[in-house]
Amino acid sequence: MRTLLEEQTQQPQENMPLRRSTREEKCNLDDYIVYLQEREVESGMMEDDPINFQQAMKSSNSHKWIEAMNEEYKSMQDNKVWELVPLPVGTKPIGCKWIFKTKRDSNDSTKDSFRIIMALVAHYDLELHQMDVKTAFLNGDIDETIYMVQPENFVSEDSKNMVCKLTKSIYGLKQASRRWYFKFHQIIVSYGFEANLMDELYFLVLYVDDILLATNDIGILHNTKRFLSKHFEMKDLGDASLGILGLSQRTYIDKVLQRYGMQNSKPGDTPVAKGDKFSLNQCPKNSLESQEMQKIPYASAVGSLMYAQVCTRPDIAYIVGMLGRYLSNPGMDHWRAAKRVMRYLQRTKEYMLTYRRLDQLELIGYSDSDFAGCQDSRRSTSGYIYLLAGGAISWRSAKQTLVTSSTMEAEFVACYEASNQGIWL
Which end of the chain is more exposed for a tag (fewer CB within 10 A), N or C? Predict the structure, then answer.
């Protein structure tokens, strides 16, 4: 359980030589897999979570919510997030409320940078450890003068007429995430880290409050962990992976199939049939067809497929990009194509991106293009994919922004777009 104290704009409502690891080798490939799952962002809050303090106190988990609030409040006191002062005349304080959210395990790693680090970890057989910054946003310093009403249920009789003058950022402030980044950047640079320099095999990846540390020197790794723990309250999650490293979304794919009633569907051989064409002519042509399509969760299904494609499934990038062009007014042909993709995922849900040590570490890229494949605009579709350490790290399939006059011109446009990405990588 986790509670966050969040600000409101209104008053609160009542409601080098490679190291040789000494770790014991394991033979189960599952030990080397990082499972990527969808974050619960669709509703913003699970239906079982209380929406205010009163509901939290009436819920069956009220003792856990109280424990979580006490822990969060203690963190704020330990970080000296505010000081109690009388409210200056003519000043209006911002409100605050408790946000109750059940914290679930999830990893949302959709960036090329993450996959590059995973490839390098596998190739160089690096130590990979994970840490979590507790109450990360409470570490950021603020320049503004901000007054806030005291948290509900934590107002003492001696100070009930006083307000909180913030000295640190707090959850809900618009500048909180930026202030946290500046604070972390300042601390880590003081330890000798520099952005994007790779002279030594040492990487530190920060994603909000989750940290990945990868290095071939276990001593440096532990020194860095001690340094971070000195400046922030940290949770050491230990060794993240070893050996052949894979990125899998099997659990997420099962969840998607279940959500759209495709869990017992016949597995499909390919994500799209050869020769299939899609156009606006397949969109509903009358109100009856439109009403029928409104009953079908097309946009939600394509969004779910897109999440899988972005994270670990370059093999469905083309068809998902194609189906995404008709989100505003899909037809039955588009929906059948989306279900074909799900049947394909049913057969291939065990597939994963894998990275391993090779004789030579090199970046390999491929680009391709059709010609005038879009039936509506006559534009071509470009695609590229880059491999590192035996696995895909970056890919894209998208309609070109201009109309080309020949196959060769379309290929040049695709090669140009791929080259831009290759330069960045």
Answer: C
- The H-or-E segment that residue 67 falls in is helix 62-78
Listed as own residue / partner, the contacts of 253-257 with beta carbons closer than 8 Å and 24 or more positions apart are 253/308, 253/345, 253/346, 253/349, 254/349, 255/37, 255/38, 256/301, 256/304, 256/305, 256/308, 256/342, 256/345, 257/342, 257/345, 257/346, 257/349
Where would I find the H helices in 79-141? 112-124
Non-local CB neighbours of 53 within 8 Å, separated by 6+ positions: 15, 97, 98, 152, 153
Cα 162 off chain centre by: 40
Distance CA 169, CA 136 (A): 10
Q: In which residue are the tokens 């994500």 written?
A: 271
Instruction: Give whichever of 213-222, 348-357, 402-411 has the largest mean pLDDT.
Output: 402-411
Rounded to whole angstroms, how far apart are CA atoms 63 and 59?
Answer: 9
Token readout for 420 is: 């831009």
Tell me if the pTM is above 0.85.
no
Q: Which residue has the tokens 């609030």?
A: 69
Residue 192, classified by CB atoms within 10 Å of its CB into exposed (0-12), middle (13-18) or buried (19+), is: exposed
Question: Residue 402 above 60 pLDDT?
Answer: yes
Residue 234 DSSP code: E
Nearest to 251 by CA among 31, 33, 29: 33
Q: pLDDT for 235-279, tens place per residue?
A: 777 666 545 678 889 999 999 999 999 999 999 999 999 889 999
3-state secondary structure 347-381: HHCCCEEEECCCCCCCCEEEEEECCCCCCCCCCCE
CA–CA separation, 355 vs 242, rounded Å? 11
Question: By C-alpha distance, which of 377, 378, 404, 351 is closest to 36?
Answer: 351
Name the pLDDT band for 15 (thresholds 50, 70, 90): very low
Angle at 405 between CA 400 and CA 407, to 5 degrees: 75
